[in-house]
Design brief:
The complex is a heterotrimer of chains A (193), B (395) and C (99). Chain A is α/β, with parallel strands linked by helices. Chain A has six helices and six strands. Chain A has one domain: Pyruvate-ferredoxin oxidoreductase, PFOR, domain III (Pyruvate-ferredoxin Oxidoreductase, domain 3). Helix content of chain A is 37%, strand content 20%. Chain B folds into two domains: 245 residues, Thiamin diphosphate (ThDP)-binding fold, Pyr/PP domains (Rossmann fold); 135 residues, Rossmann fold. Classes of the chains: A alpha/beta (193), B alpha/beta (395), C little secondary structure (99). Strand 2 of chain A pairs antiparallel with strand 8 of chain B.
């Protein structure tokens, strides 16, 4: 096994926010672009609001490792409130990045990241979702930001795959497809850091 | 023509079930196997299968439904985990002794005390002596492939035994990974049509199934079951050969990974084998002669073949993902050490109990085991034969 | 195919059916369980009104019925439980004396 180009993601969210779904969508997107993928949640006694973790491994060869990810390349924090209760930068590679759902700037947040020296990115996923969809669904913006920042999937390919997937997923309510696509594109433009 | 997809282990099993289109499913949900009947119920609702889905009030009943269906002459399936498998306990023995080729998907999970929903093998190990064939998988691909092979093994005339297709709960059951699926027609043709010789719905042959067995007959029937389990060895290899011809994917009783010149080896089952292979690759890159044996078929146990695979090793660590509470090692260790006994010269052997209740095992944990084996090989001293890893000790 | 009549207490395991399956009906005809009996019922035909209440009560189907009428006991299968004696409203079944 030679997984030199393997990229590892760790998702932190709260039960009900869709972090696991976003994790599986990232696996879908990477699969569609010809990659080998793993997408798996770490299960505990999750209930709505409890902190949850999910993981992705993405590479050009099959990965047989079935442990959790301890030294991720990217960490995605779907809920800013987790910064005070979960060690989100644990093991995070300095060559990678952390992407946080927040209205604050990367510089403002760096002080809360246990001295993490790598790239810090933020995106106001809640606002983007509320403005465009009228409701807070932070997982689609966070997925878009993860794709943009990591470059693990070609952005254009990702956009067209997601559009197709929305057409499938929302076949019975096509009126929401346009909004979701706008969320996706806006998020890739607005992610900072 | 292979079809590339990305599926969780549970969905992979459900797809295999859909492709086989069995006659009856006895369904009762329990984490982490719940998704299997959930996906399958959708296939039933969508008319993609002709299966009679029977929702019941307990796992004792779901296996009883399977037995009724099997006695009637149908193909019967179910899925379960942990306490659900324990609640089937009595019926597992009945299904095996009535020689019913039922296939049960098990997403393995700790069997309670204290309650825990995460993975280990204590549920399936509790059923190891029930007379079922047990086949374990490392990942979603293997559990799919094993499932497709299950009915032809179970229905082999001199076997007629139920088969448990096991995968690690959550770790592979809920992990989405790439997978190569067969075309529906390929699976249907591989599995074939079930033509039981004797069945209750045959009006031309009145049949009694499962009669009371007095002392004068019981042991003869157990001896028959023992013979059927021995016959299962050839059936498992025969189906693996057919499967390889179809897919190019090779299966046997176990996978010997980089064992040709290995001096230090692990013996283990399930998803951790993939993690351990990564450790083997790293150590091989450093020039160390290490390998592993991943047991696929636990029942029947491939005793002679395993001894042959390990005979040139100097030290072996057997990894048990269940306690066993023998106070001297887990069930896989007991079988493996027994297999080594017949060798003229035996490797040193230790037992490692790991991963209970979802305790994670990383590549470095496995590397450390090879270091321990290297010490044993160098000094000839095994140290503690039976120990646990990944457990907190006092500093 | 192995028939029930060929299976007995000296049959080797290789000469028995898988799972103890029995591939024919009426195999109780092969087994004399009447000799388990310690007491024997007697059918008094003159007192019998042919109500047939004894028939469904008999646990061993040892009361044959032909053309709507019961006949003599099938003593190869009657185990002498006496339920029929209790069930009969007309005292048409009694225990055999000095049995």
């Amino acid at each position: 096994m030679n997984n030199q180009d393997m990229v590892e993601f760790r998702w932190h969210g709260r039960g009900g926010q869709g972090a696991k779904t976003a994790c599986l969508l990232l696996a879908d997107a990477a699969f569609s672009s010809g990659k080998y993928v793993q997408g798996f949640p770490e299960y505990g006694p999750e209930r709505s609001g409890a902190p949850i973790t999910a993981y992705n491994r993405i590479s050009s060869e099959r990965c047989g490792i079935h442990s959790n990810i301890y030294e991720p390349d990217y960490v995605i924090v779907v809920d800013e409130g987790l910064l005070s209760c979960v060690d989100v930068t644990a093991g995070l590679k300095e060559t990678g990045a952390i992407i946080i759902n927040s209205s604050r700037t990367p510089d403002e947040l760096r002080a809360h990241l246990n001295g993490y020296q790598g790239r810090v990115c933020t995106i106001d996923a809640n606002r983007i979702s509320r403005d465009i969809l009228g409701q807070v669904f932070p997982n689609t913006p966070m997925l878009a930001a993860a794709v943009k920042v990591s470059g693990v999937v070609d952005v254009d390919k990702f956009t067209s795959d997601m559009e197709e997937s929305f057409h499938h997923k929302f076949a019975s309510k096509p009126q929401v497809i346009e909004g979701n696509m706008k969320v996706l594109k806006t998020s890739m433009e607005e992610v900072q850091g | 023509m292979a079809h590339l997809d990305r599926l969780s282990g549970n969905e992979a099993v459900a797809v295999a079930m859909r492709q086989i289109d069995p006659d009856v499913m006895g369904a009762f949900p329990i984490t982490p196997s719940t998704e299997i009947p959930q996906y399958f119920a959708q296939y039933v609702a969508d008319g993609l299968v002709n299966t009679e889905l029977v929702t019941v009030e307990s796992e004792h009943s779901s296996m009883s439904v399977c037995m009724g269906a099997a006695a009637a002459g149908g193909r019967a399936i179910s899925a379960t985990s942990s306490a659900g498998l324990a609640l089937m306990y009595e019926t597992l023995y009945v299904a095996a002794s009535c020689r019913m080729p039922i296939v049960l998907a098990v997403s393995t999970r700790a069997l309670s005390g204290p309650i825990n929903i995460n993975n280990d093998h204590s549920d399936a190990m509790g059923a190891r002596d029930s007379g079922w064939i047990q086949i374990y998988a490392e990942n979603n691909q293997e559990v799919y492939d094993n499932y497709v092979q299950a009915f032809p093994i179970a229905e082999t005339e001199n076997v007629r035994l139920p088969v448990m297709i096991c995968q690690d709960g959550f770790i592979t059951s809920h992990a989405v990974e790439n997978i190569e699926l067969l075309e529906d027609a390929e699976v249907k043709s591989f599995v074939g049509t079930y033509e039981p010789k004797h069945y209750l719905l045959n009006p031309d042959e009145p049949l009694a199934v499962g009669p009371y067995d007095v002392t004068h007959y019981y042991m003869e029937h157990k001896r028959q079951q023992a013979e059927a389990m021995r016959n299962a060895r050839a059936a498992i290899l025969a189906q693996a050969e057919r499967f390889e011809a179809l897919t190019g994917r090779k299966y046997g009783f176990f996978e010997a990974y980089k064992m040709d010149d290995a001096e230090l080896a692990l013996v283990l089952m399930g998803s951790t084998a993939g993690t351990a292979k990564a450790a083997v690759d790293m150590l091989r890159a450093e020039g160390r002669k290490v390998g592993l044996v991943k047991i696929r078929v636990f029942r029947p146990f491939p005793m002679e073949e395993l001894a042959e695979a390990l005979k040139n090793c100097r030290a072996v660590a057997v990894m048990d993902k269940s306690e066993g509470f023998s106070a001297c090692g887990g069930p896989l260790f007991a079988e493996t050490r027994s297999a080594l006994y017949d060798l003229e010269t035996r490797p040193k052997a230790i037992n490692i109990v790991y991963g209970l209740g979802g305790r994670d095992v990383a590549v470095d944990d496995v590397r450390a085991l090879y270091d321990r084996l290297a010490d044993i090989a160098a000094t000839g001293e095994t140290g503690p034969v039976y120990s646990h890893i990944g457990v907190r000790e006092e500093a | 195919m192995i028939h029930a009549k060929d299976i007995h207490e000296n049959s080797p395991w290789t000469k028995m059916t898988q799972g103890g399956e029995i591939y024919e009906p009426a195999t109780s005809l092969l087994f004399n369980t009447g000799d388990w009996r310690t007491q024997t019922p007697v059918f008094l035909e003159k007192k019998c009104k042919q109500c047939l209440l004894c028939v469904p009560y008999c646990p061993d189907s040892a009361i044959p019925v032909k053309d709507g009428k019961r006949g003599e006991f099938d003593l190869m299968h009657c185990k002498g439980c006496g339920i029929c004696i209790t069930a009969c409203p007309f005292d048409a079944i009694v225990w055999k004396e000095d049995a």
